[in-house]
Amino acid sequence: MRSSFAALLVLLLLAGPVAAKQPAPTAPPVAEAGDLCTVAYQLTHPGQCPMQGPGGRAEFHHRYELPADLPPLAAFHPDVPSPVLTRSYAKVTTANAPIFASPEDGAAGNVKRSYGKGFIYVSIGKTVDYGGQEYIKINADEYMRREDLSLLDPSQFQGIGFTEQPARPFAWVVRPYFPRLRPDGSVNPGAPKLERYTIVQIYGKERVGDFDWYLVGPDQWVEQRSLGIVEMQSPPEGVTGKWIAVNLYEQTVAAYEGDTLVYATLASSGLGAWPTRPGLFQIYSKLEATKMSGAYAADKSDFYYLEDVPWTMYFDRSIALHGAYWHDGYGFPKSHGCVNLAPKDSRWLYGWAEIGTTVYVYDPSGLTPTDIVPGGGP
Prior knowledge:
The protein is mainly beta. Among the domains are: 99-151, no CATH class; 167-229, SH3 type barrels, CATH 2.30.30; 233-362, L,D-transpeptidase catalytic domain-like (Beta Barrel), CATH 2.40.440.10. It has helices at 2-15, 39-44, 53-63, 103-108, 343-352; strands at residues 75-76, 88-92, 98-99, 113-114, 119-124, 127-130, 133-139, 142-145, 149-151, 160-162, 170-173, 199-201, 204-208, 211-217, 220-223, 227-230, 242-247, 252-257, 260-266, 279-282, 285-294, 304-316, 319-323, 339-341, 358-362. The protein has a 7-stranded mixed β-sheet with strand order 1-10-19-18-17-25-20, with no helix packed on it. Strands 2, 5, 9, 21, 22, 23 and 24 form a 7-stranded mixed β-sheet that branches. It has a 3-stranded antiparallel β-sheet with strand order 6-7-8. A hairpin with a 4-residue loop joins β17 and β18 (252-257). The longest helix is centred in the first third of the chain and has 14 residues, at 2-15. The termini are far apart.
């Protein structure tokens, strides 16, 4: 018996120490609501932890980490027939400025008539120097003093066509902007300033406070109010062939053939008391140039008179898509209800659209009333 015990003892000594039994691995605990998580846990359990602290920053960056070589938007500026505008224009800068039948009548002080005062723009012709005073011809047998006019240089902005359908939403920058590292965060010191009319693509969206923020490049976030965004749309029910989408919230216009986006640009729709009415309409009249005038305020303080408004297409009573030679504020509401386009855009759209082409006017924010009685105006 003693020899057997000795033999067993020898075997145990030769085998070495016995390893202690280890507990079975357990799954990491699920984060409780409001708990901050470690970076490692949050990266392997996205959406489970608050987006604060080091873990939140790591998850956010991982969610929106973009490659450095992002493909460009497959777009181009389509050719537009030249000249885009067949006339030159000027703003009447003097209230009740006189109009003369000839430069000689101007020198003699013989006034023929006046446009009054308001938002007044005229087509202009040749300049005549008479008696040391410059006169500009505005109509047959009508001249104005050069000093009462400000000559215009219409906007050269133009929208884009596409060589292939966009893979994601895109936008124009409508206010110069320094991109932020995070939504509502500090400026990204390594990102260039985005100038007005720069085109960007949208890679992500986050809501912070009252506004949406959009990711337009690696660690480059832009607040919505500085963008005019185009998202692909399907045709409204029952609409086939060519149709035009007017987004009142984003101030953009997009031309489609069925589901295919063929052209997109910025626009300026109705402002303040004169919003553009949402709805489904058809183009019923096309005019290469037309006069627009009117006043809707009781005191006529909003009087406007615009000669030879180019490339006009009426679709909702007196509301039209048309060229606007008098401003370069596309991407913001500016009109009396019409949809303003840059001259190149209006020329392209005029050649593409037809009588009967559907115009779908909508406001994705729902802020524009739909029971508007359109007054009409540029």
